[in-house]
Structure formats: structure tokens, C-alpha cells
Amino acid sequence: MLADGTVFRGISIGAEGLSSGEVVFNTSMTGYQEILTDPSYCRQIVTLTYPHIGNTGINPEDEESAGIYASGLVIRDLSMLVSNWRAKQSLPEYLKARKVLGIAGIDTRKLTRLLREKGAQNGALMAGPVDEAKALEAARTFPGLAGMDLAKVVSAAEPYEWTEGEWQLADGYQAVQGSRYHVVVFDFGIKRNILRMLAQRGCRVTVLPAQTSAKDALALKPDGVFLSNGPGDPEPCVYAIEAAREILDKTSIPMFGICLGHQLMGLASGARTMKMKFGHHGANHPVKDLDSGQVVITSQNHGFAVDPATLPPNLRTTHVSLFDGSLQGLARTDRPAFCFQGHPEASPGPHDIGYLFDRFVKLMEERNA
Amino acid sequence: MPKRTDIKTILIIGAGPIVIGQACEFDYSGAQACKALRQEGYRVVLVNSNPATIMTDPETADVVYIEPVTWQMVESIIEKERPDALLPTMGGQTALNCALDLAKNGVLDKYGVEMIGASKEAIDKAEDREKFKQAMTRIGLGSARSKMAHSMEEALQVQAAIGYPSVIRPSFTLGGAGGGIAYNREEFISICERGLEASPTQELLIEESLIGWKEFEMEVVRDHKDNCIIVCSIENLDPMGVHTGDSITVAPAQTLTDKEYQIMRNASIAVLREIGVDTGGSNVQFAINPDDGRMIVIEMNPRVSRSSALASKATGFPIAKIAAKLAVGYTLDELRNEITGGATPASFEPSIDYVVTKIPRFAFEKFPQANDRLTTQMKSVGEVMAIGRTFQESFQKALRGLEVGVDGLNQKTTDREVIERELGEPGPERIWYVGDAFESGMTIEEVHALTHIDPWFLIQIKDIVDTEMVLDDLSLDRIDACQLRDLKRKGFSDRRLAKLLKTTEHVVRERRHALGIRPVYKRVDTCAAEFSTTTAYLYSTYEEECEAEPTGRRKIMVLGGGPNRIGQGIEFDYCCVHAALALREDGFETIMVNCNPETVSTDYDTSDRLYFEPLTLEDVLEIVEKEKPEGVIVQYGGQTPLKLARDLERAGVPIIGTSPDMIDAAEDRERFQKLLIRLKLKQPPNRTARTEAQALKLAVEIGYPLVVRPSYVLGGRAMEIVHEQRDLERYMREAVKVSNDSPVLLDRFLNDAIEVDVDAVSDGKQVLVAGIMEHIEQAGVHSGDSACSLPSFSLSAHLEREIKRQTIALAKGLKVVGLMNIQFAIQRDTVYVLEVNPRASRTVPFVSKATGLQWAKIAARCMAGQSIAKQSKRGRVIREVMPPYFSVKEAVFPFIKFPGVDTILGPEMKSTGEVMGVGYTFGEAFVKSQIAAGVKLPRTGQAFISVRNGDKLAAVEVARNLVEFGFTLVATRGTAAVLSAHGLQVKLVNKVAEGRPHVVDMIKNREVSLIVNTVEETRNAVADSRSIRTSALAQRVTYYTTIAGARAACAGLRHAAAPVPFDLQSLHATLGLSDEDPATGGALGGTDSVVT
After folding, report:
1. Which among B154, B398, B770, B1039 has the fewest CB atoms less than 10 Å away?
2. Do the Cβ atoms of B347 and A108 come within 8 Å?
3. What are the DSSP calls for B456-470, one per residue?
4. How far apart are CA B396 and CA B411, in angstroms?
């Protein structure tokens, strides 16, 4: 049920009940497990445009967080069985166990086209005893994501250390004893693969709750500060903007931000952000690296963006989207700090822009040299 | 960087004739490349020996050479045209090999031609298996354990280290020709022998078997700035062990998690970088162990390929066009993705929101002696692609699009033993046996154990079968709207449902319509609806929202030819494309319906709208209902649309051109006979029989020998010449199997007659004879397999006039509007009508190339209501043409792929493709056609001659010619006697039955360089001489099985030295079509086949 009254009827593939959120689509053909467990999807009902979902089941390795954050899953066709040597569970079992609603059998292309034409909409999923009026009310009363600070909702409550490295085909995950650089990570809803990629590059990683102050973070004597991805509108995250601004203003510690972290760095540097019509959600987005002229295919998942018209002189555009020209990457001209709107950690998606992690490590290297 | 300005002229090499492993996908890619480069202002020179292609249309390239694709010929062309660059990646393996030869022989250096798109080094690295393996190891990618062998001895050593089963892959062969999988020593030795023979470098790769591993393909595009994108991932339903061309394949990959997919993605890009494909598209194939995900690179093709054509159609991303532009310096981000109207750049990865299934089509019924088990050597002749929102839907659409007499998973057998054998040793019909396996109660695990097909596919096939079994106990009236909708969503055709519910297709359709269940059409847009598209590339599905948005324009729909098969291939696609182009030019909206991914017709910008749909009555009717075209063309796509004609007409579909009733009148023997009688034309005595007893009786009436065939077939399917009652009895039993509900036709066979093919166009009033082609082989050899010459080389002016007169009479009699093809036989100056087909024929493209007029376009305009006279205008005069040069069409056969198959030509068509040779004498044109067809005309050596009695005198002349050229002669007893009697020196050799050493020993010892062997058409005579032909094929000795062919070869030998290339544009300029005033010298004046 969309807030405009459009109804789709299908088969429940998850938990029963009622759930509301912003309805978005994702055009990635792989990685439904990563998408479901990406905290950035908090309060969003995600429609996958690829029709067959659940083919490879669920496995413990492909989790991007401890749980499902999406408010619901909408698909065309649920796989009749699970076929993958790593699978441990089926998608519906997983959805039910995590009490997440899911619906299959609907014309997802129609829904996607509707979202494309009208922009992201609020909506509701209802499974079990269905009451359309109630669902419509839920869709209509969902407040929308603009102005919603979700980072603190999904963030870790307590600091923790991270040592797991990147996934390897033969060995899965191995712990990496990072010792070269200490990176503190502000968790606004972080995906694990960011932590894995940092650890893999020899970083000792400490994850901090979203509302950690700059003072507390700096007290850990980091070699680098990382601002994570996360859900919702960046503007209400005043605490995070404050912390980032303080670190940028007072220190020259290298800083790297991804997605929400990118928007926060933009805001902390004096730029403004805006809500996009239907955002970017897919794993096939071309982005141009303006420094090298290279085109990279990136994973994207954002509904807000930094407004390029509002950049202060010390922010330089490093990457732009070739789909719509929107701003994708920024670097501070006066600080060793940069950020990226898409997802260099991929998971799901192509690894083309993983080099940004190397760049971050290099900045720490240069500062320590 | 924008396009390069330092190059002006680019030479593109085409793929030559259609053969197994290299079909019309290279016309699609080559035509796209030509178009793209000319758009950029380059002068494009093209060489391709295949006249049936769109790429060899004079409009496609600035200079078109229909000449043999050999390095020697291409050198002559380079010398003449002085191109700055050579693009070798659009013409398959043929073009790559030719380019390598040009490089190796110093031609490119000599003339300063730069190879673009792929370097010599990159081609070498990708094609040479050892170098490839080393390259893969360098970048840390696994490949199968393997080693090269250059002799049987080495091969056995390598095998000992690897164990059985082992895979044998010869280097540098088409479609893996000569390769195979050996499970034991005997098989190993026989495959290696064949492989060493097939490989031009006598190299074999002996490899660890990965049978049962999952197989994937990635289509990668890279630009010179190292930007890389994956256009499409493809998963093979048939796992490793079956050549990917013979596998059912599905896009996108279905059973990989993102992590595994990304590893493969990174690996494919790494492969391109390491091999050094600087710009363009490549295909990388992987095997994955289903138990632990171990990934191995199997091979890569540094060029566009069959898979890239499939990927282009599957995603809407035109790989060849983009690759061509990248080759001249563009980068991906500088190019637009045209399907979104340019809203997005080409530098992205298509996301699709549907499932694409490709199923190969085989032709083993043509080669009963061939081994029909599928291996690593490709054997299929065509393919069908279908798009659906789910695998089940696209799979079932593909099944019915194949046109192999099934509407879905029709049952083959209930015999468990047969099922298990078919599952374990895959043949062309394995997928139906998988269905039967489930019906017989086998479990997914059991079927998986035998087939290694991924359970993800198996359960969906099982679900289809389970659903069918439920339906089997139901009747239509007990199925409600909801259930019927679910069935349609699973892809069941109305026909299949009718069969299961024991009713008729028509009844199911009426009920479905009454319940309001109709397909919707979704668009292929490369982006899963993320951006809006202006392109109408559509597929049907059962969903809520329809995106077809038909316009209110005047529209004509063209029905295509479906999957390629022997007898119906690229020639028909050529005609469909021409119809679409002509009518589009005239302001109609053109709508193409077809399901063959290899073709130009299924390029989304050939027509205004493309429906990628099976050509069944149901699918076509639904599109017609949606689009409401003012005319539908059924006569261009071969039998496929033709056989729908009457049902379409009955359903009220406006068919334009010759009426279905008249088409039927030409196909129906009895009606046709009445017509001939009325027109006072002759045909060989003939009868129609519906039972065996009747046939035997009628045979006596008209007398043996007879040509027998079922009615309504194309390509001479099941056509045979029978000499005696015994043969007829056997035939009747076999033929009835072929076509149950159609009668068998008996025709008196005309001995030693000359066969003539005529193509004509009529607008209903005026008839023009487009071309009279004289066959080189005598009547009795299928017209598709016979070489022919335009103009004729032996017909008198009187006979030609008579042929024209009869053609016009027939066109009038059948009220032809559009194209018509007639086969005549001339016996002792009497003209007999063998067959009339009021439709596009296989020879239309050849005739068009030979005469400089595009007859398919002219005829399409006639169908749309424009008279020939009205079409003819200054600068484009339409009239009958008598070229001052000869064009010879020669057929190309797939025998090399089917060891042991008899190569003798007969009434059943066996060729897969054709080439054309042009010259100012018949001999010159013929010799070029032979070179182009890969026949190596020997210049000296020993010629073996053994001919049937009727040919003995003619053989003397041939033998005398050969002696003049410096050949020595060897012959069997009877022939030798005649030759010596005529004063020729000849050695005697035993027939095989006469004891050893015999002629086959001689062939095997390579003591013979040319064979002329004709036999009586009796089964025994054919069988007795078979070993001569098969050993000749195996030893690559040039052979002629007709005396006419041998005679032509002698004519050709006079010109074998150094043939000169002629470009099409210059040839056509000599025809005076562009500068005449039609009112005076043109259509109405010149030649006189105008009847009013």
C-alpha cells in the first residue's frame, strides 16, 4: 500500500503484521542479504527490481550488521529452493526469524516506475489478516525520512574493537591484527564491510557510538577518523556534524566519510544537503573520478545529497555521478579529509572504488611519516 | 579522448559463410560496426564472402567486397583501398585468423595498416591455450590442469598425468571443432587424431575435466582509458561438458551471491587487462565448483561473439556498436546509452528486471549418421531467446519459440532407462527428458546426480511438470481466472494448456480472453526502470502494468523467421530487415516480431518497435491485438510465419501481399496442379499419396525414379530420390513419422536435367524477373545445396524467354503481390515447373547483390501498395538486370563437425550457409566461390575419377582438362576403361569392394589431390562409395560428387592463379541503374517481362 492509495496484492514471505516506511527500489541484481542488513535501509521498505530473490539463501558471512534494518522487502518472485554451497537458511525463514515483513508476487516493475515518476513514497506492508484502511493509514501517517535522525537509533550503544578482515573465497573471514594505524569509526549505522576493509589494510579499528564527542574520540589518539554510512536525513544529526567540524577545525587527522558520513563532512565544512527525488539505489552507477578521468562502477544507496551549489571554497568536488551529474565525492583542500557518497566498500556491488580505502591509509601514512 | 582523426579509412573483415559456431550474430555485429563507424565519418571498407548479410549491402559500407576472406584476397583489397586501420574483432574467429595471417605475412606492416580493437599480441595470447594459461597464472587465477601436445605420443603422456575423463581442445578451431571429452583410451586416441587434424597448428590442449561444474560467462567492455564494465552475466543451465553454444543459457547469473559474483567480475576485468584487450568487447568463461566455489577461467574471446550478441539482445546494450566506437578512440563515458534516449552514458552496467533464456536448436535430423551427444564441440545450428519476468516464463516461451513441434515440456518417453541415459549423456533433447524424469517420479537429487544441472533450475522444471500433472486430471471449465492467470504467469502457452486439458487452443484462448487474462508488454531498458526509455523494445508477460503504449501511426508488422535451422536462416532475416527498412523509410511505423537473438532484425533500432517474442499463433495474435497494424507481412520469414498465415487471416489479421489462400494454392499439390493445367505449364508427372498402399500404386503409374517428400516443408526435409519399390516402402514408413497429418508427394525425377531458380517480384500488375539462376549441380540436388550462377552459363536465349514467360504466368495465376521463387527443371529443352513459392526465398539476397537492386525492399513496397512503376525513379531505376559479370553462389556444409556423415548431396538440404564469387567469366566467379567456401582447388597432383555410367562421357572432358592442367589420372575399372578408350593415360585402382590396396588407402596415404566421384542415386551405390567421401573429408581432399561440379571446377582452375577483387559498388555502377530515366530506358522499356 502506497500513501497515494495504490495497492499491490501478493504473497507474504516474512513475518505477519504491519510495517511502514519510505518505499525505495534497488536495481542491484545480487546481494539481497547485504541490502537487508544494511542499517542505511532503516525505516525503508525496499523493492528489489530483479525478479528472482532468495536463490542463494542466507549465510552467516554475508551479514552487513547484526540484523535486518529494512522495514520490509518487496519482490517479484521468491526462489523455490536455496542453491548455494554457503547457504544455511532460506530467505523466508530468515525474514520470519527476524520478524520482518516481506511480500512476493507483485508487479515490482510497475512499483518501480511509479516511484521513478512520483519520487520516493511512504507506504506500508501488511501481512496476515489484511485491513487495507489500516495499511493506508499507516502509510499516510509515516512521517517520512526528511528531518528524521536515524543515525543514533541504529548506532552501536558502546564502543567496540573490530579485527575481521575481508572475505576470501577459500578461507572466508580471518582476523587481522591491525597495528599500523588506529582508526576511530563514528558509527551512524555502519556496514561491516567498511570495518573489514579498514582492518584488512592494517588498521586497528575502534567503533564509537554516533553521539561520541570529538573530545572523547580524540582522547583515543586516533591516526584517522572515519564517518560511517547510515540512514535518514543528515541535517538533524547535529551532534555528529559538531564532532566532525571540531576534529576538522582543530586537528589535521585524516578523515574519511562514506554516504551519510560524506554528507556529514559536507555539512561540517559548511555545505548544505538536500533530499533527492528518488535517490540512488543500485550497484551499477557510473561515477567519474575527476582527478584521474577514470569511470568507476559503484554501489549507491542514498536519498539525500550534498548540494554542489553550496560548497565552500575549501571543499573540492572529486567525483560526480554520470547518471545525473550529482555530487559524489568531496575533498577538503585544507585538510587531509575526503568523502564519498556511494559505497566503496561495495557489499553488495562492484569493488571498483575500493581504492578510496587505500587513499585513506596513505593519508595516515603521510601524516605519520 | 574523442575519436581519432589520424585514421580515415577502416577495413572491417566479416565472418564469411554461416557455419556451425559462426552464424548471423556476426552480421549483426559487423553491420552495427559499419554503421557506427560511418556515423563517425570514417570511410569503411568491408570484405565478407557471405552475400546473405545486411553488412554486405552496398549501403552498409562505403566499399563492399563480396570476396573470399583469405589473407591473400584481403591483401589485394588492402593494396587497392589503402586503409589506415583494420578492425578484426567483428567477424568472429574467421576475421581474427585472417587478421593474424595478414600480420604474420607482413601485409599490415607493408601497407602501414594498424590493427585496432585487438592487437596481434592480444589475439595470440587469448587464442594460444598455453600462453593463455600462463597469463591466467600470472594474475593469480586458477585454470584447469592441462598441457599442450603436438603429437599423439605427447598427448598420451599428458593424459597419463591428468587421468580420465580428459578434455581435448585443438588450438585455433571454430566452435571448438575437433575437440571432445574422452572417458577411455580408445576415445582419447580417436579424438586426438581428429583434433590434430583439425588444428591448423597441430596443437592440442589436454585438460583436466571440469564436467559437472557450473559454467558462467561474463561480457566485458573496456576502453583505452581502462574503464571496464560488465554488460551481462550469463549462467549455463547445462553445466561444464557441453559447449556453451549448445547449452541452454540464462541471463543474468542466478546462483551466485554478491560476493562470488564480484570475484568473478574482478577476475573478468583482470583477464582483459592481462590479455591486453585495449578496447572493445570480450567474453570470459568461468567454471565454478558447486561444492566449494573454486573458480577457474576456461577461456576468453578477445572479440565480439555469439554470447555478446546474446548479451546485447538480453540487455539492450549494443556491444558491437560501442566496441567499434571505442576502437577509434572514444571512451565509454563519451558515448551515450541510446536505449534511454541518451539520458545515461554507456559507461554503466545494465541492470535487468527479467530473465532471459536461450535454447539452442539442432539439426541432427539432417545428419542421421552423426553422433548427437553434446560435447565441447558445438553442434547446434541456431538458437532462440525468450524474455520473461521469471525463469519459468522465459524458459517456456523459449521452448515454444524453438519450433521443434513442442509447446512446452512435451513428453518424450516414460521409459526410465531411456530417461536415465539421456540425462547422463546429454543429447539435443535433454531438457525434455529432465521433464520426463520428474514425471516418472525421479527426485531433484536423482536428476541432479545424473545431469549436474543446478537444483535451482531443476525445481522450477519440476514445478512445471507437477503443474502439468495436476492439469492432466482437470478440464478447462474447472479452472478459474485466478488459476489461469497463475498458469500464464508460469509461461504455459494456450496450446500446451489445451493439450493438457484436452481441448483446443482456440477454446483456451477464448476462455482466457473472456476472463480478461491478457499479456502486458514490458520494456527492455538496460536499467530496470530506473530511467524512462523512449525505445520500444518489448516482451510479453502476465503482470499488471502494460508499457507498450502503441501509437496511432500507420503501421506494418513484419513476422521474422525464428531460430536459424538448415533451410531457414540468415537469408530470411535479411528480407525481414529490408522490409522494415523500406517501409520505415516510406513513413510507416514498422513493428518486428522475432525471437532469434543472432539477427539484425532483432536489433532494437532496425524497426520502430521490436517485440522479442516467439512466433506462435498465440503470441502473434496478442501483439496484433495490442498494435492493430494495418498490414502484416508473413512472406519474408520463411516457413515460420507462413504456416501461421491462414490462422492469422481467419482471426482477422490483415495480411498484406500474396493472399494466404494463394500461398496455399502453391503449396497444395492438387490445387497447384490445377493451376498449371489452366496455365498450360508442365510439371514432372506427380501424385499425392496419403497411405503407403496408395503410394506404391501411384508410383507405378508415374514410374521410377521418384522424388518423394512430405508436403509443407522447407529445406527439403525428408526429401529423397527413390529408384525402386523397396526404397519407397521404407520411405513411407519413415516419412509418416515426419509429418503425420500431411500427405506425401510423389514426383517423377527428371534425370540429368538442369535446374533453374527464378526470383521474381510482382505488384499485382507488373512482374519483374529479378534473377534467373542456373544451378551447377543437376536437378536432384536440393536448390539450397547447389551452386548456381547468375546469369546462367548455358541456357539459350530462347529458354530464358520461355522461363520468363512461365514466371509471369505463374505470378499472375497466383495473384502474387511481393516476392516469388520458382524452381524449374529443363530436360532436353523442355521446361518443367518443379516448385513455386510465393514468398521470399533463400536466394533473394544473392540476387540483390548480383543485380544491384534490393528486391526485398521493392517487394515490400509492392505489398504496402506502391506499384513497381511508381517506385522506379531517376537515380533508382527498377527494371530487370542482366549483369555483364557472373555471380556464383556456393553452399557451405557442416560435414567437418559430424565425422562419419556422408557428404553426398541429395534432395535434402544440408548446407548451413553460402558464399558468393564474382568474376567477368563464369570460371573466375566459380573459383572465387570455391575459395570462399574453403574448398582448396588443387593445382597439380593426382586426380581420382570414378563416375556412374551416365556421366562417363562427360568425365572424359573433365579428365582431359585435368591432364591439360598437369594432373595425372587414376580411376576405377569402368571409368578407366572409358578414359583410356579416349586416349587418356590413366592408372587403375580398386574400388573398396574390390580388395586392397584400394582407393581409400590411396586417399589416406595422401596420394590423391582431387576427387571426382559420382554415383547412381540408389541406396546401395551411395552406401558403397561412402567411405571415399568420408575419408576425402577427413583428409581434406577436394572432392566433387556431381559431374557438373567437376566441370565447373575445371573452368575455375583456369582462373585459380590470383583472383582480382571487385567491389560491389563499382560492379553495380556498370548496371546503369542510377542514371537512367525510368520513363524511357527503365522498367517499362528495357527488358520485356511486363504484362498488363
Report:
1. B154
2. no
3. HHHHHHHHHHHHHHH
4. 14
Q: Which of residues 96-155 of A touch B (CB under 8 A)?
A: 106-110, 112-113, 116
The ipTM estimated for the assembled molecules is 0.97
SS3 B331: coil
- DSSP H helices, B749-843, are 797-813
- The one-letter amino acid code at B888 reads V
CB contacts, 8 Å: B352 with chain A: 29, 50
pTM attached to this predicted model: 0.94
Quick one: average pLDDT of B602-614? 97
Place of cell 549465510: A59
Reported for B971-977, long-range contacts at CB under 8 A and 24+ positions apart, including other chains, are B971/B944, B971/B945, B971/B946, B972/B946, B972/B999, B974/B946, B974/B949, B975/B945, B975/B946, B975/B947
Per-residue pLDDT of chain A (369 residues; tens, 9 = 90+): 899 999 999 999 999 999 999 999 999 999 999 999 999 999 999 999 999 999 999 999 999 999 999 999 999 999 999 999 999 999 999 999 999 999 999 999 999 999 999 988 999 999 999 999 999 999 999 999 888 899 989 999 999 999 999 999 888 999 988 678 999 999 999 999 999 999 999 999 999 999 999 999 999 999 999 999 999 999 999 999 999 999 999 999 999 999 999 999 999 999 999 999 878 999 999 999 999 999 999 999 999 999 999 999 999 999 999 999 999 999 999 999 999 999 999 999 999 999 999 999 999 999 987
CB B355 within 8 A of CB B390: yes
Asked if A173 reaches chain B (Cβ–Cβ under 8 Å), the answer is no
Task: Report the b/e string of B965-1001 with b at 16+ CB within 10 A.
Answer: eebebbbbeebbebbeeeebebeebbbbeeeeebbbe
Q: Please check whether residue A168 touches B, CB under 8 A.
A: no
The answer to whether the CB of B1073 falls within 8 A of the CB of B881 is: yes
A42 is catalytic: no
Contact B528 A286 (CB under 8 A): no
Record the cell numbers describing residue B84, joined without a space. Answer: 589506415
The verdict on a CB contact (< 8 Å) between B348 and A85 is no
Average pLDDT over residues B752-761: 94
Of B549, B646, B629, B547, the C-alpha closest to B593 is B629
Contact between chains at B351 and A59 (C-beta distance less than 8 A): no
Query: Do the strands B204-208 and B686-689 form a parallel or antiparallel pair, or are they unpaired?
Result: unpaired
Is A259 designated active site? yes
**pLDDT class of B15 with cuts at 50, 70, 90:** very high
Reported as type and span, the H/E element at residue B498 is helix B494-500
Distance CA B386, CA B395 (A): 7
Determine what percent of chain B falls in helix, strand and coil, rounding each to the nearest 5: 40, 20, 40
β B114-115/B85-87 pair status = parallel
List pLDDT tens digits, range B113-156.
999 999 999 999 998 878 898 999 999 888 788 888 999 999 99
State how far Cα B696 lies from the chain centre.
37
CA atoms of A122 and A142, how far apart (whole Å): 7
Of A78, A43, A1, give the one whose Cα is nearest residue A303: A43
CA-atom Rg of chain A in angstroms: 20
Q: List, for residues A263-279, the tens digit of each pLDDT value.
A: 999 999 999 999 998 78
Q: Using an 8 Å Cβ cutoff, are A302 and A295 in contact?
A: no
Comparing alpha-carbon positions, the chain A residue that sits nearest to B530 is: A116
Q: Which of A203, A237, A259, A339 is catalytic?
A: A259
Asked about A161 being catalytic, the answer comes back as no
Return the C-alpha cell found at B992.
573398396
Give yes or no for a contact between B1025 and B1013, defined as CB atoms under 8 angstroms apart. yes
